[in-house]
Design goal:
The complex is a heterodimer of chains A (155) and B (443). Chain A is an alpha/beta fold and 155 residues long. Chain A is 34% helix and 19% strand. Chain A has four helices and five strands, in the order E-H-E-H-E-E-H-E-H. Chain A starts with a strand and ends in a 5-residue tail after the last helix. In chain B, the strands form five sheets. Chain B has a four-stranded antiparallel beta sheet, covered by helices on one side. The chains are: A alpha/beta (155), B alpha+beta (443). At the A-B interface, helix 2 and helix 3 of A face helix 4, helix 5 and helix 6 of B.
Chain lengths: 155, 443
């Protein structure tokens, strides 16, 4: 199992993914944790390297900031993106679409999406997102423990 | 990236006029739009609008130590940070009259090869190729050509691996310094890259054949080209500047040739020659001036495709990029093989002096120029950065004008699509280009 946090810690709540990884570093073996940008090549490599991947990312949502959702990206439909604007980079949903198309998705792909509020240039999370980071880290930590119990090999 | 079926473009049509406008360009980096105005069956105006906020990097640099320049300027772009680092150290080393030993220059060139591979690959495989194959984006293309996308991702990774090793990390690397590097790689570390680079070279060879088979819209232009010039090895990390009209000069004379100007609809300064002419920088300009400097391996492969020695069709820039990917893989392998400097000093000493220095290098998108004035304490007093996309804005507008004029018979949707393709020929990096040099507030 690999847990990948995506985001930019200098853009306010966009740092939620990295903050969850920082929390997990206190208990889990760091070699199974990744801090990523939403880079297609980097995520594809992670997808190829491990059959079970968990991704944590901040998102814009109609829900209150700090609310979070666990999405099974293999079984469930991922909510559509709000922005249709393109950049050189690919969005997480586009990367997952691409991986699906070229059959590079892992067997298990879980996404934790945390609704953010402030995405300005600042290196701190809003209070609501900070709270959500703790909750999501605890939830993933439990999943890691279960995974470790179920497999005698690595998490 | 947009799904073509949902693409939003506006057509405003009066009795005699029509305006085609795309508010958000797809498959380019940053935020830009274009507008083409047609009146009585003739194109009146074509504008590339850049509305990304100005980023004031030159102002950030003032008052900082000259040693900060490579790391600060690397932050301008996540796709071509190495270009910013190299042009900045070239300028600083020019100011300080430093001579950089060949083994350090070679490592810089190797690192730059990594950037060319990853940047060009992203553009060729994922952003530009869908235009020629009739797909709205790479995801739709991947449904029919999964092996192509996989090849592109593999190539990109090979480029990123070079930057990661030599730069400390893939994006915004941190190992380049004025005077050399902070740390040199071991021979063993470099040799580890060779395996993936050999496969990358094979992938690049196949990519060159693949893109050469595309059909290209007709648009022949006699551009004035500006690039670094080198008859011995294809110019990447340093060199003299040359123009297709025959001028050769050091980077320090660049601002005598060109002028930057502000236009109301763009947050990026536009550039033209002081004689009023527009000019092109980028892969086509580099290729036209330097194709004889490609390695014999690349020349042979290019010859096999039948590619012309002077490229005048901007749509065919994808072939030049593919040839440059192949060259960068080949050159990287050569540099790795020749490396024997792990026990050498990682940098030379840097005596400070008050001076102005100039530096240029070939970013994937074209000539990237830096100028800095530093004082005796090594503090930056003035800075100017002229990125390639800013230089290409006027040429892009001219291409749009010409292309629209020749294709007025097309449906609005098809004309819009073709105009977008014409902009993507330049792989514009809009975030890089949005550097306001001066801000004037009038009340």
């Amino acid at each position: 199992m690999i847990v990948a946090g995506i985001g930019n810690p200098y853009r306010g709540d966009d740092g939620a993914g990295w903050a969850v990884i920082q929390e997990l570093e206190k208990t889990a073996d760091p070699k199974f944790l990744r801090k990523c940008r939403a880079d297609a090549g980097e995520l594809m490599e992670i997808f190829k390297s491990c059959p079970a991947v968990t991704i944590v990312d901040a998102c814009l949502a109609d829900a209150p900031s700090g609310s979070w959702r666990r999405i099974d990206a293999i079984e469930e439909a991922i909510p559509p993106e709000r922005s249709q604007t393109s950049t050189h980079g690919f969005s997480l949903i586009q990367i997952i679409d691409l991986a699906k198309t070229i059959r590079q998705l892992p067997d298990q792909l879980i996404i934790y999406a945390i609704a953010g509020k402030e995405f300005r240039m600042q290196n701190r999370l809003s209070a609501a997102v900070s709270q959500a980071v703790m909750e999501v880290a605890q939830t993933i930590d439990r999943e890691i423990q279960i995974c470790m119990k179920n497999t005698s090999s690595t998490i | 990236m947009t799904d073509g079926s949902e693409k939003k473009f506006k057509i405003r049509a009066g009795a005699k006029t029509k305006t085609i406008q795309v508010d958000y360009l797809a498959r380019v980096e940053g935020e830009g739009s274009f507008i083409v105005k047609i009146n009585r069956g003739k194109v009146e105006e074509a504008k590339l609008r850049i509305f990304e906020p100005p980023r004031f990097f030159e102002a950030f640099l003032r008052g900082r130590k000259l040693f900060d320049a490579p790391d600060i300027t690397a932050r301008i772009c996540g796709i071509c940070p190495v270009a910013y680092q190299m042009s900045s150290v070239n300028a600083m080393e020019n100011a300080l009259l430093l001579s950089i030993p060949g083994y350090l220059q070679d490592l810089r060139r190797l690192m730059y090869c990594g950037e060319w591979i990853e940047s060009h690959t992203l553009h060729v495989f994922l952003l530009h190729a869908p235009d020629f194959l009739g797909y709205p984006d790479a995801i739709q293309m991947a449904k029919d050509h999964p092996e192509i996308v996989q090849k592109g991702l593999r190539l990109k990774k090979a480029g990123n691996s070079i930057i990661e090793l030599l730069g400390g990390r893939e994006i915004h690397p941190v190992n380049v310094k004025v005077g050399g590097f902070y740390r040199l790689p071991s021979k063993k570390e470099l040799f580890r890259l060779a395996g993936s680079l050999k496969m990358a070279r094979e992938d690049a060879e196949a990519a060159l054949e693949w893109v050469s088979s595309f059909s290209f819209p007709s648009l022949e232009k006699d551009y004035e080209c500006v690039s670094l010039i080198n008859s011995e090895r294809y110019p990447i990390e340093q060199g003299q500047i040359g123009t297709s009209s025959g001028l050769h000069f050091p980077a320090g004379d660049f601002e005598n040739l060109i002028v930057e100007e502000c236009v109301a609809y763009s947050t990026a300064l536009q550039t033209k020659m002081k004689n009023g002419k527009t000019y092109l920088t980028g892969p086509i300009a580099r290729y036209n001036a330097n194709h004889e400097a490609f390695s014999s391996f690349v020349k042979e492969k290019l010859k096999k495709t039948g590619f012309e020695k002077k490229c005048t069709n901007p749509f065919r820039s994808i072939i030049v990029r593919a040839a440059e990917i192949l060259y960068a893989c080949d050159e990287a392998l050569r540099l790795i093989d020749a490396y024997d400097a792990e026990k050498m000093p990682a940098s030379v000493s840097v005596p400070l002096r008050k001076a102005t220095g100039f530096g240029a290098s070939e970013a994937p998108r074209g000539l990237l120029y830096h100028r800095y004035s530093v004082n005796e304490q090594g503090v930056i007093e003035d800075a100017n950065i002229i990125p390639p996309t800013a230089q290409n804005q006027k040429i892009i507008e001219e291409d749009l004008f010409d292309l629209a004029s020749r294709n007025l018979h097309l449906s609005d949707e098809d004309l819009t699509w073709k105009c977008e393709q014409a902009i993507r020929n330049y792989d514009p990096c809009i975030s890089c280009s949005a550097h306001f040099l001066k801000l004037e507030i009038i009340r």
